[in-house]
Amino acid sequence: MSGEWVAAADVAGIDEDDVTRVDVAGRVLAIYHVDGAFYATDGMCTHEAACLADGFVFDGAIECPLHQGRFDIRSGKALSPPVSRDLRTYPVKVEGTTVFVCL
């Protein structure tokens, strides 16, 4: 895998079934903690550029706070209107208490 691993968040800063916004290397990302694992996607909705960290995490999906479109957290797939474009996802690894994202 090519890309740079960058420290993005502290494990303790993201509760189970929650999301947080991080700004890494000029990008807005959303880091999720779901079912004991961590995931990362672009942090802005593909529909109207709302911050996904202000949305709601449930059933493995993030719901955009603006128009309630949903994305699969693991794959980035758009699940419901009005969103139709998938989110970009990023590989994640945890070392110690730090969540790293590969950009």
Structural account:
The structure is a single chain. This protein is mainly β and 103 residues long. It has one domain: Rieske [2Fe-2S] iron-sulphur domain (Rieske Iron-sulfur Protein, 3-layer Sandwich). The protein contains no helices and ten strands. The protein has strands at 5-10, 18-24, 27-34, 37-42, 56-58, 61-63, 70-72, 89-90, 92-95, 98-102. The strands form three sheets. The chain has a four-stranded antiparallel sheet with strand order 2-3-4-8, with no helix packed on it. A three-stranded antiparallel sheet has the order 1-10-9, with no helix packed on it. A three-stranded antiparallel sheet has the order 5-6-7, with no helix packed on it. A hairpin with a 6-residue loop joins strand 6 (61-63) and strand 7. The N and C termini lie close together (10 Å). The model has no long low-confidence stretch (mean pLDDT 95).
Summarize the structure.
This protein has 103 residues and is mainly β. Helices cover 0% and strands 46% of the residues.
